[in-house]
Design brief:
alpha+beta, 2 helices
């Protein structure tokens, strides 16, 4: 039950995949808005792959999973978060990627 969508923002590409989740333009807009901020700050980003998945969880605090793969020259960064709402999962996954990008940018400057 996979749905795949692709969209381009500026020079960056975002691919969306849904596993057991109905495609949602609202979720896509939230992701785009958040990832545009990363692209503005880190111009070396090439592409994002965003995965939404429902997981049966024994706790109410988890189950709505957002996974984001981010491609930059020579590397693949990955983050995953699971919360009771996709919005919270998107925020945590994007925040984690931003931390990874800060480290990556620091390494690029030293090389």
């Amino acid at each position: 039950n996979f749905l795949i969508f692709s969209t381009n923002i500026c020079t960056m590409q975002i691919n969306f995949e849904y596993d057991g989740v109905a495609a949602s333009s609202r979720l896509e807009q939230l992701v785009k808005k958040r990832l545009e901020k990363l692209e503005d700050k880190y111009d070396f980003i090439v592409r994002f792959d965003v995965f939404f998945q429902n997981e049966r969880s024994s706790t109410r605090e988890a189950g709505k999973i957002c996974k984001i793969k981010l491609r930059v020259p020579g590397s693949l960064l990955f983050s995953e978060a699971s919360h009771e709402k996709f919005e919270m999962s998107i925020q945590e996954a994007a925040d984690d990627l931003e931390r990874q990008l800060q480290k990556k940018k620091g390494k690029l400057k030293t090389n």
